[in-house]
Here is the input.
Amino acid sequence: MDLKESCPDKLLDAETAIAKIKNGSRVFVGTGCGEPQHLIRTLVEDLNMQDIMIYQMLSWTFSDYVDDPKFMKRFSLKLFFISASMRKAAFEGKIDYIPTYLSQIPRYFANRRIGLDVALIQVSPPDKFGYCSLGVSVDITLAGMQNAKMVIAQVNPRMPATWGDSMVHIDEIDYLVPYEEPLVEAVPSFKNPEVADRIGFYVNQLVDDGATLQIGFGHLPNTILQQLMDKRDLGIHTQLITDAFLPLFEQQVITNRKKTMLPGRAVASLCMGSEKLYQYVDSNPMFYFRSSEFVNDPTVIARNDNLISISSALEVDLTGQVCTDSMGHLFYSGIGDQVDFLRGSAMSKGGFSVIALPSTAQNGKVSRIVPHLSEGAGVATTRGDVNFVVTEYGIAELSGKSIYQRVMELAQIAHPKFREELIDVAKSRHYIFADQLPPSQDDLIFLEGYKNRMILKNGKTVEFRPLLPSDEFATGTSFTHCRKRPSISVFSTK
Here is the structure.
């Protein structure tokens, strides 16, 4: 469609379009790699813009300006999630963080709890019917534009056209600003590859063929996905698609054939990655992009049988409480999609959740398995919501376990040098018996060589493994529900 012929009155340059925004406006900006960079830069550079309140989920371009005192006097940033580029500004109190579940944000726009005057979005060029695509950023961007009084869209030929709820007609847009530029690229760097590989090794043991996965963004999720190349017929229902998924698609590890909801389609809300990823999703009918109130709705998530939610954390205490969004009093990231998917996976038939994290931080100086969460740390996930916790030292299963059992399960996957200290604190708080021996300080990965599986005639899988300290509280033969297909794990007999 030729915009000059079809809607010449809507076609403006960025300066003219931004000038339509009134001082004191509440402005929504599209998410992450789909954010309209040209419109953002023009907004900031227009010195007539004063007292502007910005709402955004993941922010990149604004990080170029937050250290400028003049910018901070004119703009107020309210973010639903703190990206790595905004972390320093968050620590310094230059931005405001709104803690909430992703599934709820569109509702806040719709009921005017968060009123929006303007939405700045980025779209692909319209097709012959006048439909543009929100491309790699549907998430809360769709709700933001639907509930804003005025919508200004940067029309970028580099924006992929994606399938699903991403289509927006030019009649829904007030002003169109053609401007071509590369999309934001976000590829996490790899940290502690040996630790990440070992965590991925243990997560691999929990993922069966045919499972449907949710997994987040970062170097650890990327490594975990690399460890799943031996699986078959995996499905995807997740908030975010990254480059780490590409080998799994290309090798047909991810087929989505076994999904019970929207089989054959990878359901997601947004993409963050490289140009290669953006080209892969462009007009690819395998991908079905929906808004966050759908993708992250626990009742929708639960319609996927065998849904495994894999997310990360900053620290986990000995009772199973999880902190994800703050380092003590310092806000670090956000609640994001973790709680939505943990609760959805718990309701999924055969589904469960995994919290994966390295056992230590600060170059091994502090334990991430802690007696209690740091002062000021927020409880994003309650102890009642946690199922599996995985570090490079093994798997702790907390669901249905008592505090005694949780302490032992978590202590034995903590770094060996912190295990005795954790047990001593647990004893002082009467979490465990006063004469309880701490787990061995040895690295028990050698025990993996003693594990074995046997498939029974009824299709169930029996797993055999050596006895661990946390098994002390079980009596007789211990059975546990095992993930995707009907199975039991036989730990020991007495």
In short: Residues 476-494 have pLDDT under 50 and may be disordered. The longest strand covers residues 116-123.
